[in-house]
Amino acid sequence: MNQLLSPGWAWYVAILTVVSLLGCLWVLRANSIKKDPGADAKLHGHNEWDGLREYDNPLPRWWSNLFYLTVFFSFGYLLLYPGLVVFPGLLNWTTESLYKDEVKQAKAEFDPIFDAYAKQDVKTVAADKGAVQIGARLFQTYCVQCHGTDMRGSKGFPNLVDGDWLYAGTPEGIEETILNGRNGVMPPFGEALKADQIQDVAQYVLSLSGRAGSADAAKRGEATFKETCAACHGADGRGNQALGAPNLTDNIWLYGGSLATIVETITKGRQGQMPAHKDLIGPARVHVLAAYVYAQAQEHGGPSAKP
Ligand code: HEC
Ligand code: HEC
Asked: Which of 33, 51, 64, 188 could form a disulfide bond with 269, CB atoms 3.0-4.6 angstroms apart?
């Protein structure tokens, strides 16, 4: 359908177009006929420039024929294509059908490639150079806005190549993350805990990654941690991949490891969301992406990347 605001405009454009083309024909014809056959060409009445004067001759035949051709071409074009808007054209061509054809063509071309990878396990695909190149392009299209072109993420968006995993960093774990998404829920403790309790437990979190803080406060915080936080982050603070609760001992931070940020995290909570991509790009492409992420993590993540 046409995208003009009201169908009246479509007719306005269509009529204007046809009338203009007919007008072109009329102008051409009027200028091609000698007004007074047999008579010598007359001079135009208007001015003379440096001794040059203009005869009132018809246009040269070859010249006007070219013009006729363009006009007939226009009519042919408007007959075949939807140039008039009110008439879809004999070919029924639309940009939408063009798009659909291209998608069909791309599917026919690329689906067999993805289907072949889908039959192999992620590790095997990760060792395939061609697959990794395809994965890199998919990553540039679907993932960089959150995880960055270098895969190193930013605040709230995890670094995928540091060897530290919120969720399982196994090939299957990564694929599961991309397929179904993840929802990390760190509850807010601003009401459940008093301000000085939060300060103390934050000091304890600092001490977990071996950083200087107040030893007394950390000691007090340890009790709160065991009581309130250990259920998710583990008694030793090393986290729990089933919940996406980060390891708090490795000095790698999703939101930030300064005292102020840790206090903010504990007070207000956090809700990191990794969107599901199963329906968006289909499981076959997710499979190749998982292989790409796994391969990159192996390459850049060092020995700790090994699950
Ligand atoms: C219900 C489980 C749960 C409990 C209880 C919990 N956390 Fe968390 N915590 C999480 C999850 C999940 C995340 C990651 C949130 C995300 O991915 O957005 C997180 C994130 C954090 C972070 C941010 C880490 C980073 O890398 O930036 C800190 C710090 C933290 N928690 C400290 C605590 C402390 C201290 C307590 C106790 C007062 C606590 N958590 C209690 C689940 C929990
Ligand atoms: C809208 C932003 C967004 C997009 C787009 C996105 N992600 Fe994520 N991703 C996240 C967030 C946020 C998390 C962390 C979730 C949490 O805090 O629990 C995450 C987590 C992950 C993890 C788990 C990391 C770990 O440490 O366990 C992987 C793997 C991942 N994403 C891969 C991808 C891939 C591959 C794509 C592209 C198909 C992608 N992501 C697209 C936001 C995004």
From this structure: 188
